[in-house]
């Protein structure tokens, strides 16, 4: 039975971690997630998926990696495993549609790193986060360190990565890591409504925006500026832009119906 399932709600693909009790990442879950991400990519490229929501079942979002996967590994095998973990975040980041994670409870190590690889991160007020790898003699290897730097800055990321402490969602919100806080009872309903809103937007324009956000994060403002004319120029070849302009002129603001083309 798959430990990750894909649920399609209209134009929103929901990627659901479902490996009771702790949603621990072992190689079987990694393989399932890789397959689901490839499926979502194909749906996005076909225009069937226009937004992605990552969530989890159970009393925790993710308890981290099953440490049995680390036992007996030497340097080369350890590096190979970390490269595979890192690839999960890269796959998520490369999706050409908006992505959001909903964290309802405790989220540790690779679960947090996966969440950081989505465009937006929502959390329950009762949730908590930790990159606790130092407690077993390791350091985060699935992209969490660098993506936490991008969201919270080097100083705060250093405290997070070097201590292995667990931090409440409220503090993560204050640091700029979490975009929105919601009560646990309404988190899923609220984030689904938000994902629906993203899916109804101009998908090609969103992809262009994501490309420039990533360019600015990875290479700085000058590189993003240099890429902007080409990236934004492609949006003028879409169907959504002229439809949006005509709707604005005819019906007023925020009434356009976009088709993601």
Automatic annotation (TrEMBL):
It comes from Cryptosporangium aurantiacum. Signal peptide: none annotated. GO terms for molecular function: catalytic activity. InterPro entries: ClpP/crotonase-like_dom_sf, Enoyl-CoA_hydra/iso. It holds the Pfam family ECH_1. GO terms for biological process: fatty acid beta-oxidation. This is Enoyl-CoA hydratase/carnithine racemase. Coiled coil: none annotated. PANTHER family: ENOYL-COA HYDRATASE, MITOCHONDRIAL, ENOYL-COA HYDRATASE-RELATED. The lineage of its organism: Bacteria, Bacillati, Actinomycetota, Actinomycetes, Cryptosporangiales. It comes from the Bacteria.
